[in-house]
Structure formats: structure tokens, C-alpha cells
Design brief:
Elements: E1 3-6, H1 8-12, H2 21-32, E2 38-44, H3 56-61, E3 71-76, H4 79-85, E4 93-99, H5 102-109, H6 113-130, E5 133-139, H7 152-164, E6 169-174, H8 181-194, E7 199-204, H9 211-220, E8 225-228, H10 249-258, H11 267-281
Parallel strand pairs: 1-2, 1-8, 2-3, 3-4, 4-5, 5-6, 6-7
Helix pairs in contact: 2-11, 7-8, 8-9, 9-10
Length: 283
């Protein structure tokens, strides 16, 4: 079964103009009607680092979860953020951005990789106490533009360490959109065969013309969990100056269905969500 993770948080976080809290909540409520496996809805991080997400707790209070099967995921970057997120029983997953690039880890979370691994362990312990799951995003998982070392073997070393900490879901992340279809297939195939107990996800950024081939590459490698954002909005403001958008969810859906996957989504509600994007992202 394919799991689609819709990421309005990622779509919104790089936008300079603040999106009204009520508008964010209305949009996420519409996404909750579609039937996505999970909604990556917000983050508990420093408002100075990501001003757009300073109202995540307020947004959460406005969400209508009663008729939705979707789970909620919030990004955290430290123990304090995890503790804040865990105050809310509605949140199912905490996502932590771990990088295989020392340069990007410091740029993204102001911590070294060694320090970030300690945080992963501490957050994992908190999640286990509260009955929550941690999703670790391995950013720069398909290449490194900063000159740090990179290889599929390096990814395996990180995964092995995370397995020992009890992590069950790892999303390989192409934060700047440089992954080739060949590497996507190879990396997922190797990691899934080596660590069959782990649920591997794909958090890929892409130019619009490359989305379909990257989806097919991930599927060919055995990936069954894909992150996306409607119309491909978003990108990591901590990476490069030029934001590379998320994988457009509607394009992924079309490609997956064209090759025979049934996703169980409510298409009329999806169409309504698509309409809302113009008000959310083009105020």
C-alpha cells in the first residue's frame, strides 16, 4: 500500500509573507478530507528560524480531526520542541531533520551531526514514553553540494545507527533536487534490502518536468511512502538560496494511478484543496 504524506508545512515555511492562522487551518482542514495517510502540518521550532511556523499550536487548535483518517506530523529540531509537540495528543509523529552533511546539519539546526544524533535518541525516548513515533529525515540523502563526503554506504551507516536507537521510519530526503532516477532506485533498493524492518520514505524536491520519473524510480526501488505538496509549492529555506519545490502531489497521484496503484483518495475533496492553494500561496 502506498502512503502519501501531504506537506503543507514544507510548502508554507519558505514564504516570506505571514499566512494568516485561520487560512492555514482552513487549508489543512481541507487536506484532512482528502484521505492522505499523514499531514505534515507544522513545526515546533524557533520562530526566529522559521517565522512562518510560529503559530503551529494555534493552527492545531483549529483543526477538525473527527472525520479524518489522516495522521498528523510535526517537525521538531530539539528536545524543547519535542516536549512542546508532545503536549498535544492529536500529533502522531514527530519528524526530526538529521543530515548526512555536517555543513547542512549546522546550517539547518545549529548543531553538529554528533549532537543531532544525541537529540534523536532523546526525542525517541520521549516519543516512546508518550506512545508516539519519530520519523527521521536524512537530508542530503542523495548527494552533497557542500563538499562533505557522500555515498550509499554512508547512508547505510546512518540508518544502522538509527535502527539501534529504535527508529522505525526513515525518509531519505533530496533537499535541493539533485537526485537522479538511477540513484533513487539504487538507494532505496539497497537500503530496503539491507534494513527490511525499516519503513523508508522519499522526501524529494524536484523540477516539475522530473517528478514523474522520480516517482517511478522510487517505486522501482521499492519505496511505498512519498512526501509531496500540492502544486509543488515549498522548499527548504535553510538549503540553497534558490528554493527547489516539493514533488507536486497531484502529479505523483496521476503517475501512481497510471501504473496501477489505487490510492483511495477522495477526488472531489482533492479538487477543492487544489482550488484553495491559490488563496493560501497567492494571497
Amino acid at each position: 500500500m502506498i502512503k502519501l504524506i501531504e506537506c503543507p508545512r514544507d510548502a508554507m515555511q519558505g514564504i516570506s509573507g505571514f499566512i494568516d492562522t485561520a487560512i492555514k487551518a482552513a487549508y489543512i482542514n481541507q487536506l484532512l478530507e482528502v484521505g492522505f495517510d499523514t499531514i505534515d502540518f507544522g513545526s515546533f521550532v524557533s520562530p526566529k528560524a522559521v517565522p512562518q511556523m510560529r503559530d503551529t499550536a494555534e493552527v492545531l487548535e483549529l483543526l477538525d480531526l473527527h472525520n479524518s483518517k489522516s495522521k498528523l506530523l510535526a517537525i521538531v529540531a530539539n528536545v524543547r520542541g519535542a516536549q512542546d509537540a508532545l503536549h498535544f495528543p492529536e500529533i502522531d509523529y514527530l519528524g526530526f531533520p538529521l543530515s548526512v552533511s555536517e555543513t547542512f546539519q549546522r546550517r539547518n539546526t545549529n548543531a553538529s551531526i554528533a549532537e543531532a544524533m544525541v537529540l534523536v535518541e532523546e526525542i525517541q525516548n520521549l516519543c516512546e514514553i508518550k506512545g508516539k513515533k519519530q520519523v527521521v529525515y536524512l537530508s542530503m540523502g542523495f548527494g552533497n553540494p557542500y563538499g562533505d563526503s557522500y555515498s550509499p554506504d554512508l547512508i547505510a551507516e546512518f540508518v544502522e545507527k538509527l535502527v539501534l536507537l529504535g527508529i522505525e521510519t526513515i525518509s531519505l530526503s533530496d533537499t535541493i533536487g539533485i537526485a537522479t532516477p538511477g540513484l533513487i532506485t539504487e538507494l532505496f533498493k539497497i537500503q530496503i534490502e539491507t534494513f527490511p524492518q525499516i519503513e523508508f520514505g522519499a522526501h524529494l524536491h524536484s523540477r516539475p518536468e522530473s517528478i514523474s520519473e522520480k516517482v517511478c524510480a522510487g517505486l522501482k526501488g521499492g519505496c511505498k511512502r512519498f512526501d509531496g505538496a500540492l502544486k509543488g509549492f515549498g522548499g527548504c529555506p535553510m538549503a540553497k538560496d534558490e528554493l527547489v519545490g516539493n514533488m507536486a502531489t497531484e502529479v505523483m497521484i496521476e503517475k501512481m494511478e497510471s501504473v496501477g496503484y489505487s490510492l483511495g483518495l477522495n477526488k472531489p475533496e482533492l479538487a477543492e484543496a487544489m482550488k484553495l492553494t491559490q488563496f493560501v500561496f497567492n494571497p
